[in-house]
Write a structure and sequence with these properties.
Blueprint: E1 4-10, H1 15-31, E2 37-41, H2 54-71, H3 90-102, H4 107-119, H5 131-138, H6 142-149, H7 152-167, E3 175-180, E4 183-189, H8 194-207
Parallel strand pairs: 1-2
Antiparallel strand pairs: 1-3, 3-4
Helix pairs in contact: 1-2, 1-4, 1-8, 3-4, 3-6, 3-7, 4-5
Amino acid sequence: MTGKEILYIGDPMCSWCWGFAPVIASIYDEFSKKIPISLTLGGLHAYDNFPMSEDYKSNIKHHWEDVNKMTGANFDYRFFDRKEFILDTEPACRAVVTVKHLRKGKEISFYEKISRSFYLENRDTTNINTFESICIEEGLNFTEFSMIFHSDEIKKKTAEDFAYTKAIGVNGFPTLIAKDNEKLALISSGYQPYSILQPIIKNWINHNSKIRF
């Protein structure tokens, strides 16, 4: 299995990634002992600095409704009652990069919990204090987390994730990539159920079946 890896590219504040959460969890549970599964942050609305307009909210709400219909994922629609909210996904992405640096192996679980906080609990994931309870759940020291989160190094690493995502041509989330040494191939772009993805990944790992390199 030398040289093979699965790359998951997403954003914890991406609604389709929230719908994909059970799928990536199943992929991780079945395949992570056979092959590395890494997480790259895409930065869906990274560095946005303007309050959401009513039209913007309406567009986002439509996406949430589509995700619910397709995946069954639940949402707290009280989010749309917020005034002057800036949908900057960089802090949530940076929180995951922080965990990758602090305790590698916890990042996918932490990522899912950020999504849960945003979508189910209507919490502000642009505010670092929201991550304190998640750190407690994951057994991480929040003071240490905070220091790393605010560091220039982690801000740079987060921006590098965004740049890498663009460099390999990924512009939608969630995306799964098969990596074989330096060769990359698309497994899926956008939501796909586990029943579709599981045999594709299994055949690639066990039988070296082609995935359009």
